[in-house]
Amino acid sequence: MRRPWRRLALVLPGLLVLAGLTALRLADPTPVAALRLQGFDLFQRLAPRIYDPDVPVRVVAIDDDSLRRLGQWPWPRDRLAQLVDRLGRAGVAAVALDLVLAEPDRSAPARIAELLAGRAAPPELAQLARDLPDPDRDLARALERVPSVVAFAPTDTPGRMPLIKASFAEIGPARQGLGRFAAAVPSLPEFEATAWGNGSIGAPAGRDEVLRRLPAVALLGDALIPSLAVEALRVAQGAGTVTLRAAPDGPGLDAVRIGDAILPVAPDGQFWLRFTSDVPARQVPAWQLLEPAPAGADPAAALRGRIVLVGVTATGFGDTVLTPLRDRIAGVTAHAEALEQILLGGSLTRPPWAAAAEIGLLLALGLALVASWRRLPAIVSGGLAVLAAGAILAGAFLAYRQAGLLLDPTLPALGLLLTHGAVAASAQWRVERERRAIRAAFAQYLAPSLVARLTEHPERLRLGGEWREMSFVFTDIAGFTSLSESVPPDRLVATLNAYFDGVCGAVLEAGGTIDKMVGDALHAMFGAPLDQPDHAERAVACALAIHRFTTGFAAARRAEGMPFGETRIGVTTGGAVVGNFGSRHHFDYTAYSEAVNLAARLENANKTLGTPLCVSAATARACPGRVFRPVARLQLRGIGAPIETMIPDELCPVPAGAYAEAHAALRRGDPEAATLFTALAADSPGDALVRLHARRLAAGAKDDLIAVD
Hints:
Blueprint: H1 2-27, H2 30-46, E1 57-62, H3 64-70, H4 77-90, E2 94-97, H5 109-118, H6 123-130, H7 135-145, E3 148-155, E4 167-171, E5 180-181, E6 183-185, H8 189-194, E7 197-200, E8 213-215, E9 217-220, E10 223-226, H9 228-237, E11 241-246, E12 253-258, E13 261-264, E14 270-272, E15 283-285, H10 286-290, E16 307-312, E17 320-322, E18 328-330, H11 331-344, H12 354-371, H13 378-403, H14 410-442, H15 448-456, E19 465-477, H16 480-486, H17 489-509, E20 513-518, E21 521-526, H18 535-559, E22 567-582, E23 587-592, H19 594-609, E24 613-616, H20 617-621, E25 628-636, E26 643-648, H21 656-667, H22 672-683, H23 688-698, E27 705-708
Parallel strand pairs: 1-15, 1-16, 2-3, 2-16, 3-7, 4-11, 5-9, 22-24, 25-27
Antiparallel strand pairs: 3-6, 8-14, 9-10, 11-12, 12-13, 17-18, 19-21, 19-22, 20-21, 22-23, 24-26, 25-26
């Protein structure tokens, strides 16, 4: 009777994951929705909409060049009137201004007259200003002559209601669920009165500020309002009515008909945008239409019969949106892309059944995976889970590319992998429980990292070794022999235990392995038994942590009357043979090489140099993110070539630039070095390294080569 329960216990975590993911998807919190949208964005980046140059939509861009040639924004309204008239003469189908012209032109005669009156100007001058042409009137007349659309910005703050030119026909309860706004910031009444249409430029972005959908229609109070793209298409087609069709299976909008075009939308009136990459051919700079064209050239000819949207694309103006392609484009470009999509068809659609299908797929595949766990090896089951997740991703992408369907692959794909991971973790936990006895036995003798490696791969427990590039840290306490003779044994043991507790903690914190402790010395290594590409950086960080701890520890002991010496540290990097050395009855995981011996020699060299920490040049070169100072070239007994040694910059009180200048002079044998180091020693008497070089130079030394026993 126990085996069925054991099997259930094994797969229970997977079943709980499936249940939790299903509940999470039904609740659909913000992180889940954000992950789904990121998946849809990835589809667009992989396969953006291909721009069709024949689509009758263009943007007249008030770009940086136009502002440079024609003056800063906002332009006088008579210049906009010239632009509208120019487009009208070119025979465009419609002109839509992606501009909210909510205030009178600052150069309008009435405003100039008010300014003059406020400054006590002669009445004749104020009257002359009133007689000037009114640029707002010029633009209003231009809008009346050309099929045109002006814009308003919906808002939730009180404001004037815009004049809606479109009429709407509703088939069924279509307006239920539409987005609703309280009011709007409209263009001036004279522009609304003469323009042929009036459209909303509201472009609600998501929480991550990415524009993925646009409302085709919305509610302003209780009134229906069209988007700028819908209104521009209505005016261009000469249609008076926009038809709203309710969904056949319930209330809420299903499609919007504008003349001959039918746009599928969601119940809230919004439709998904499928963006193209940056296409310069979509835009015509405004200056090309307002300045005289070269002989034989007519930039406006290419706009004949097209719907033209006019907007600001110049740098520094806030009307920009972030797209799923991770591009930031001007708002007018987004409206143009929406209009292109309406005309071309092939809109993206999130089907009503999508969520149920995604949850069903997750449950079906997840339960199949759980049921097959005991029948298949873990690696096979994991491989099948990965293949199934890949198939889900590929299928969703294919549905997007071929049919414009937005199906979420993240829930079933990640859910499948998480389910497999939960069951695999449960099985691994059982295996780990069986290994705990082994860990408990070996943990008393070996470093935790070595225990873990040997537990995973017991076949690697052999007397042989392997060659690795590693880093080594050796420490020693100055004057320990005299200390041990002057302190009672029980106090000495307690002090050393506290000392090694801090030093070993620094080693383990840096990811090192404690090789051995001999008397007052500690040997640590980095880069084995586990691979650590940054072993040199870890070793230096460990050495600095040891220095910080031991400095405070020694000061505290000396305050108690114990003559506890400074800890000297040596760090080096190089190749070494590392492995289990010893007999079958007793072995020691350690490393042997010249680099190991050199670390011990560098630790001892601190006694001569007066430094707390000595680092080999090989270690310093392997730490490009740290700053080191050259100490000296050490001529070590038994080693032919001098050893270049360094010290971390943070341990040196002398300014780096001054020290570098002095040491460079010392290295090249410049007599000026004595003067420089003498001055530095006077300024920083606490810098032992500077004092050393000053003394050596005073005694007749010519360079930085120092012999160390």
